[in-house]
Every structure is written in C-alpha cells, then in structure tokens.
Design goal:
This protein has 72 residues and is mainly alpha-helical. The protein has one domain. Helix content is 62%, strand content 0%. The protein has five helices and no strands. Helix 1 packs across helix 2 and helix 2 packs across helix 3. The protein is globular. The termini are far apart.
C-alpha cells in the first residue's frame, strides 16, 4: 500500500498492451491479477485504479516520472 505500487500498476497498464486489453474488458479481474502477483493496494487505491481510462493510458497522457499526480 504505497504510491510506488500504484505507480507500478499504472506503469504496467501504460506499457503492457495485453494487460491494458484485459483491464479494458474486466478492470476488476485485471487488478485482481496484479494483486495476486504481489501488488499491495488498499481498497481506496483499488477503487481509484478501477476508474482509470485504459484508452487514455494508451495515448500516453500519463507519464511515470510525474507519479500519480501526472495523470491528466
């Protein structure tokens, strides 16, 4: 449960087309998959991540260097 975990999830969604497609089809299942692989996220972080627009991630509107606040 930390900003680095949230950033890793967003970074994975931004760079992994397969994960992004799974997230687009079923966001909760894709996030559950990432949690099963070791992402430690609070309920609040999960809720926030489930609201991300995978198409915006694909258009590179978020930059990992800017952190979570870099989301536009």
């Amino acid at each position: 449960m930390s900003q680095p975990c949230v950033e890793r999830v967003i970074g994975a969604l931004a760079t992994d087309e397969g994960l992004r497609l799974r997230f687009r089809r079923n966001p909760r299942a894709a996030l559950t998959e990432m949690i099963a692989k070791g992402m430690d996220l609070t309920d609040c972080e999960q809720h926030s991540l489930l609201r991300l627009d995978p198409d915006a991630l694909a258009r590179d509107r978020w930059t990992p260097a800017e952190g979570v606040r870099g989301w536009r």
